[in-house]
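Notebook B, p. 112. Complex prediction, attempt 2.
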Amino acid sequence: MEIGKSFATATALALVTASGAFAESLTIATVNNGDMIRMQGLSSEFTEATGIELEWVILEENILRQRVTQDIATSGGQFDIMTIGMYEAPIWAERGWLVSLDGLPEDYDVDDILPAMRAGLSFEDSLYAAPFYGESSMVMYRTDLMEAAGLEMPEEPTWDDIAAAAAAMDSDEVNGICMRGRAGWGENMAFITTVANSFGARWFDEDWNAQLDSPEWLEAVTFYNDLIQNYGPPGAANNGFNENLTLFQQGRCGMWLDATVAASFVTNPDDSVVADSVGFALAPNKDGMDKRANWLWAWALAIPAGTQQEDAAMEFINWATSKEYLELVAEREGWANVPPGSRTSLYENPEYAEVPFADMTLRSIEAADPNNPTVDPVPYVGIQFVAIPEWSGIGTAAGQEFSDMVAGRQTPEEALERAQALVTDEMEAAGY
Amino acid sequence: MSTKASRFSARLMLAPAVILLLAWMLVPLTMTLIFSFQRFLPMRGGFQGWVGFENYIRFVNSSAFWPAVQTTIIIVGGVLLITVILGILLAILLDQPIWGQGIVRIMVIAPFFVMPTVTGLVWKNMFMDPNNGLLGYLWRFFGGDPVVWLSDVPVLSIILIVSWQWLPFATLILLTAIQSLDSDQLEAAEMDGAGPLSRFWHIILPHLSRAITIVILIQTIFLLAIFAKIFVTTQGSFGTRTLTYLIYQRVLESQNVGLGSAGGIYAVILANIFALFLMRIVGKNLDR
Amino acid sequence: MARAVTRQRKAINTVVAWTIGLLIFFPILWTFLTSFKTEAQAIADPPVWFFFDWTLENYRVVQERSNYTRFLWNSIYIAGGSTLLGMIIAIPAAWSMAFVPSNQTKNILLWMLSTKMLPAVGVLYPIYLIFIQLGLLDSRFGLTIVIMLINLPIMVWMLYTYFKEIPGEILEAARMDGAGLREEILFVLTPMAIPGIASTVLLNIILAWNEAFWTLNLTASRAAPLTAFIASYSSPEGLFYAKLSAASTMAIAPILILGWFSQKQLVRGLTFGAVK
């Protein structure tokens, strides 16, 4: 058979070419976010300077997470550098799965990393993942619509201000407010958890008993649900960061509460029709409570223990998260496109201060305290997540209940009751 | 008649396939079975002791288990129903003489070649998205409020997406079956004054029974395992969590390998019950 | 069927069939069209159909970001290799069951199909651990073996039903003429079975090409096929419909073209030889 023959030849050829790895080559797993794709584009400069070849594995966030977690938990050794978040870093470091980054050279200037970011990515005072970019959350709103409604957004709004603004801006063409509704511990639960924090709720008490049956949770979730039902876009239960970003860029959201990194996308005139009329404010709090709904997150580069190429990997991290890399991006793409939220020196740079969202981003990050996330004391670290290995399962399962609520398939009471049951269940299975 | 020697060489020829499949089935299955009796949490260092049947009890008692079984049955059943019924109608239509038959046939079978992930992504984003999807525009064009497919009618949406992919398969098999039907028989029936409906019921449908069985058997095997389309559309939200997806959540999202493995064993048992049932039907066709 | 049909009825049938055909094909056509739009046009309200400035920009961006040819080559290697390897194992097995049946044959056949019912997620951990031990992670060879094993039951089944249709008398006659087992398979059986083998090959290439669980979970960079290529375009930040469409078109075009050229064989293969 002709087909068979050509396959046989093809197979033989492939076996010959597949054998033997050549010069030093790093395999890097990362997320398909804009800043990372830019890094991939610029990485040829790194290869030219060092002779180290790079193999990029760029995957959608959920798939990436599943792949790297599977690989690190089984010591699969597939990757030399992994892109991980603030949630994974301390847990994996504690297990001894990551290489400590204490070996970074002097001129890398570890002390320049924003304190909040450094704290979140360290374990026992050693840095285990270098922040590529960092974020908090804040309010992005349409200045033109606010003006038309005769309202003014305070720099430090309360939830009542937000609700009033959403009601005023909501119309046939524009949704008053866009918020995350899509299930996932890194999607709707990140947002809902910050709302809950700001209403004085917490996930667990100090003995690890789930607290979703508390009145604070009910108040927070009911408020969120009312807001999104009354002034949110159709299909809000399916909207994550990206769907809302698109809506805001199309001018269909009066307000959007989400990550500070979104600021550079919504103010980019190439992609956003509302680029000229976006204002920023701190994440809201409840009147009289001092916790704001700020989260804290970083995408960071880490080296899995057991890699054969520790030195080369360290060299790459030194390049990709350095001050020089920020300057390189600024030179090529302008200051607004520099990966934000990682270094103090960036915010001290007068040129970067010109960027409209720089100040509010820094203030938001500084407002977040992962070691002290809630009003009442908790046994865990992390603001919009709980830094325990079970969280990804718990968060996503609970997230699906709240997503069901936003879709109008159950009430806040029902959602909380079911979430409380399954969290208790899962914690029991994990042996708490 | 076969000699002793040829029987021996026949065994020899069968051996590689049987041995390989046996290994492919037994090795992972045994490991899964072992995991299922352990508390095995990779994120907490792996093996944490033997727990007997605890994982099995926990998996069934979880509030998600029975809804997941139910969802699995509804999705598999729904897709089978749609693809078989529409497949028969489409096959009859394509069997009629028409202009450009080849092109129409190509258009109808095309969805079968599309990767499941692509299918899921295209439908979710470019069609079912209420704000930017094409179906949303269509609804607005006719003055309606766009349907939020994935959260208003989530299970139906999944069934539609999966059916789109598998309808071509059913149509193709049924079409070939119809084409092999003896046209004299139909003409004779027509002469006898049998109407189209009675011809369909008494001649075409019985002739198709074997092809229908095959469609059901093969599709069921693949449908029980659908994962990619749910992963990229609803991620198991809104009651679209099938048994396969529930196991995925236990193993990979909760990183509880023991519990997930127990779920895997349940799935094997359920699938085999289903298989035995199906084999009874198809088994007859093997002995012709 | 060669029955006389009036022109009028043929016209009606044609219109109905074309409408349904276009409706079913539409999502693919729409993806194809979208891949030539800008991101803004891709979500324009009202939608733009044919009259826009067709651009190859999305294809350029995709090509710049990912090494398409390597993904493509891995897909061809894995789909082709697993099918070839599978056929080498499946043909003798199917032959022996079809022509030298024992009272266990039916049970073996049913058991083979039942191995397909193991849920892949349930055995991901075991397989991953085995692959680490054998050093097969991210190797095309390892993936080829897994995909082959997944599809082997289907291959054996298909070939079995084909071989069953070959009349036994022909083999008897060959044996009378003194043909040995080797000659019997090579010169008598194979020519008769070629259509069946061809359709089995085709179906398996399609199934292997579209397999999205193991190909994603057992590869990183070197062995990653087109399913992984798609995973890097699925939901990035910002507008992505046009780029996703371009990537999708690139991922499905090869197999779609192969499928179109061979639809006749495929029809015969899919029916398991059930219908002559």
